[in-house]
Structures are given as structure tokens and as C-alpha cells.
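Example S7 (C-alpha cells).
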């Protein structure tokens, strides 16, 4: 009973002091905050069911069901993402939209972060960041964006990018990030502005390193160089008489042994 009385007295004291909103209105920025709160209150979360784009029906047959439909949790995540985009656009109208919701290759809207799938491939060459970066650069052909000054409307998953062996800067970065995270690296994707040479993959200023392939020819080893100033060592001289005497002594030993 004592706890209930204390809570009732605390509520009465709070009512006597007045609501928090009334205290904020006494500030000089009350009008701006009230107007901003009114705009943010109008923003609501709309959970719309996902529908497959008829133009992508043919390609959708080649993909798993998770590419063609969203789960209830994914729909709820999309609602929160759209709500955050609206609030960001309201608070910062001078900045470009975030674009956290994009369509996949099946025409289904997906949260942008779900495109990244950490994957570890069973190849030792793809266990380091140098090997992974070289694989993506050599294996995936780069294609330009439809509009170089704005992000794409749809993105392909890393699996589709590998299957098609082509992708734009967003798709290649998502594939690279997925492989790096699968290998244990703390990798993430960012996007911004770049020069025209970078966005169009212009390489006319890049120095081409040409390696000449030389056929291996079997050659015999070079003869040793003869020094004509080297002293010649003569043969060791030996007396013929001593040789004959040694041979005679050996014959006498054989005869005595018999």
C-alpha cells in the first residue's frame, strides 16, 4: 500500500509541473520543433506485400524462392527502412536520398544490407584479400551504370554476378565484400562520387605492362675459358732403370713363393 501511495504522489507532482511538451514550448525553438514533430508524426510504416514483376518472371524461375518472395520479418524490415528514408529526407532535404531499398534480379524489393552474403570458398587462393581482389577484378567484367550520377534501381545478388561474370560497381563491390567477410575480414561497402575515368573504366592513361614470352632453348654449357698464361705442369720424370729393377724384384718374389 505504501508503494502505491508513493507512485500516486509522484504522478500528482508530475501533473502539477505540467507536461514535457508544454515545457518545450517555452523555449525559443519551440515552433520549429513542434512543426518538425508534426511532420515526423505523419510518417508511418507501410508494410506492402511483395509482388513479382512480370518482366522478371522468366529469370525468377532460375532462382530460389527466397529471391522471389519476402518473409514477414523482411517485410517489417522494409517498412522500417522506408520510414528511416522518409525521416532522413525530411531532416536533410539538401542531401541525396539514401536508397536503402532496391529491387533484386527478380524484381522484388530487398533491404540493401541483405545483398551481402558472407561466403568462404574452398580455395586456398581466395583466403587472402589480395587473392580475392584479384579474382573479382579478373573474373568479373565491369559494366557501366545506366546513369553515372545516380545509384542503380536494381541490383543482382553475388550468386547472379558470379553466374553472369559481369556486374556494375555496386554489384562487384557487394561480391567483393561478401567474399572478404567470408574470409574473416571486417569489410563493408560505401558509395559516393568518382571521376569519369573511374566510372567509365577508362584505361587510356594506364601504362600497359607487356611481358615477352621467350621460348626456352636448350643450349650446351659454355666451354671453360683457357688461360694462356697459366703455368703448364709437366709430367713426373721416372727412371726406366728403376722400373726394370722393380719388375725383376717382383718376379724373384713370385719364383721364391712357388
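Recovered sequence:
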Amino acid at each position: 500500500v505504501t508503494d502505491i501511495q508513493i507512485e500516486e504522489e509522484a504522478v500528482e507532482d508530475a501533473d502539477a509541473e505540467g507536461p514535457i511538451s508544454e515545457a518545450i514550448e517555452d523555449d525559443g525553438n519551440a515552433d520549429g520543433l513542434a512543426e518538425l514533430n508534426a511532420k515526423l508524426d505523419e510518417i508511418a510504416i507501410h508494410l506492402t506485400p511483395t509482388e513479382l514483376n512480370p518482366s522478371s518472371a522468366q529469370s525468377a524461375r532460375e532462382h530460389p524462392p527466397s529471391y522471389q518472395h519476402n518473409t514477414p520479418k523482411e517485410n517489417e524490415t522494409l517498412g522500417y527502412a522506408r520510414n528511416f528514408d522518409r525521416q532522413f529526407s525530411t531532416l536533410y532535404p539538401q542531401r541525396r536520398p539514401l536508397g536503402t531499398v532496391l529491387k533484386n534480379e527478380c524484381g522484388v524489393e530487398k533491404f540493401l544490407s541483405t545483398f551481402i552474403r558472407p561466403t568462404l570458398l574452398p580455395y586456398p587462393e581466395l583466403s587472402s584479400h589480395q587473392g580475392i581482389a584479384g579474382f573479382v577484378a579478373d573474373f568479373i567484367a565491369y559494366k557501366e551504370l545506366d546513369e553515372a550520377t545516380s545509384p542503380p534501381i536494381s541490383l543482382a545478388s553475388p550468386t547472379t554476378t558470379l553466374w553472369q561474370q559481369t556486374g556494375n560497381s555496386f554489384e562487384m563491390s557487394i561480391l567483393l565484400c561478401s567474399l572478404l567477410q567470408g574470409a574473416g575480414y571486417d569489410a563493408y561497402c560505401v558509395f559516393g562520387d568518382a571521376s569519369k575515368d573511374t566510372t567509365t573504366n577508362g584505361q587510356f592513361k594506364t601504362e600497359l605492362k607487356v611481358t615477352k614470352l621467350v621460348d626456352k632453348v636448350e643450349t650446351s654449357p659454355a666451354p671453360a675459358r683457357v688461360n694462356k698464361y697459366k703455368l703448364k705442369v709437366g709430367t713426373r720424370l721416372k727412371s726406366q732403370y728403376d722400373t726394370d729393377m722393380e719388375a725383376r724384384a717382383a718376379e724373384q718374389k713370385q719364383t721364391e713363393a712357388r
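Notes on this example. The chain has a mean pLDDT of 76.
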